[in-house]
Amino acid sequence: MTQTAQGYCDPAFAAVRDVFEQHFADGLELGAAVAVYAGDRKVVDLWGGVADRRTGRPWRADTPCFAFSCTKALTATAALLLAERGAYDVDGPVTAWWPEFGAHGKEGATAAHLLSHQAGLPVLARPFTAEQAADPAAPAAALAEQEPEWTPGEAHGYHALTFGWLAGEIVRRRSGRTVGAFVKEEFAGALDLWIGAPDDVIERGAKLTNKRPAPSREGERPAEGVPTPDASLLKRRAEAEADPGSLMNRALNNPHPGTNGFNNPVVLRAGWPGAGMMTTAAGLAGFYRDLVAGRILRPDTLAEALRPRVHGPDRTLIVDSAFGLGYMRPATTFLVPEAGRGTAFGHSGAGGSMGLGDAEAGLALAYVPNLLNYDPGGDLRAYRLLEAAYASLG
């Protein structure tokens, strides 16, 4: 029986509801939410399923969910807002405001390198616990002292967790505030999202799980028009996933979140600025609504930030990635339907979450699930919702 989504859906966007409910019917969801804005008009705000598998607690309108690397877009926006105000030069040397960063040949690194995954520091060289990483100054100091994996600016590789302590150091040093505090105080105060969640938000939040509630039939409904990565890159990615010492695994697994994984309250309270946000779908979509409308950054600032700085095989993720200044652009790691491939931007999160904006289309969308999908063949839940949203714009 198809799960009936709760919430609101404009009849013109019924296709989004259909896709969302079909994912539940296909056993691809435990609990999830999706929200869409067309301009300033909220046209979709849907949720359904179970927020906590153990207790059976239902997902509600105000259920926040951990959204992994969707966080990076907000951290980047905070850094860009400070640059817009003249607090530092994006293309100037990091050492101008972080002198210690110049160690081991990193003196040529710019803030743009930190924001576009070109810094050469995708891995913390020494192990960090969740408790140690709760103080953003500690991982930042360790990264400043490290020798880079490559000379900053000469290659790009996804800084899965370290991005937050590199780009976040711009915010800490130039504003005197943590990323979470800056984001809340400057542009997200009215939104249901937190980079560093209070205990009451953690208590009502969705609990993440890897276990599928039913056998997936995703393979029966292949998505048309999805770019297929080169077979040799997929083979190399599979080899990297199987190798504990690969750059990919070292980047993704240090700091370790602890025995409860990313349900660990220590991580949720800390708000790692690379992967630490709790948010409702409506809250994250509201951020992109305001961003594309020019209410957070000036249009010229955003346009420059969306200019692709890097594109191609990613040293960490192996397959193709593309980045502006902190924002993902369409690539294998950020799948976007053809209608948005020239204009969409945003950030995906491990396990399936996504936030996206498209100023030309006037679209903002966010999707957050608690059933994590790490299928190496690709998780297409967000892609299908996006496809339906773009088609509904008409």
Provide a descriptive summary of the structure in words.
With 394 residues, the protein is an alpha+beta fold. The chain has one domain: DD-peptidase/beta-lactamase superfamily (Beta-lactamase), CATH 3.40.710.10. Strand 2 and strand 3 form a beta hairpin. InterPro entries: Beta-lactam-related, Beta-lactam/transpept-like, Beta-lactamase/esterase. This is Esterase.
List keywords for this structure.
alpha+beta; three-stranded antiparallel beta sheet; seven-stranded antiparallel beta sheet; Esterase; Beta-lactam/transpept-like; Beta-lactamase; single chain; Beta-lactam-related; 12 strands; Beta-lactamase/esterase; 394 residues
What overall form do the CA principal axes indicate? globular
Query: What name is given to the CATH topology?
Result: Beta-lactamase
- CATH class reads Alpha Beta
How many domains?
1
CATH architecture: 3-Layer(aba) Sandwich
Helix fraction, binned, reads 25-40%
Radius of gyration: 19 Å
Q: Approximately what portion of the residues adopt beta-strand conformation?
A: 5-15%
What is the arithmetic mean of pLDDT? 94
Class per helix and strand makeup: alpha+beta
N- to C-terminal separation? 30 Å
Going by CATH, the homologous superfamily would be DD-peptidase/beta-lactamase superfamily
Main sheet attributes: strand count, strand direction, barrel closure: 7 strands, antiparallel
> How many E-type strands?
12
User: If helices are DSSP runs of H or I spanning 4 or more residues, what is the number of helices?
Assistant: 14
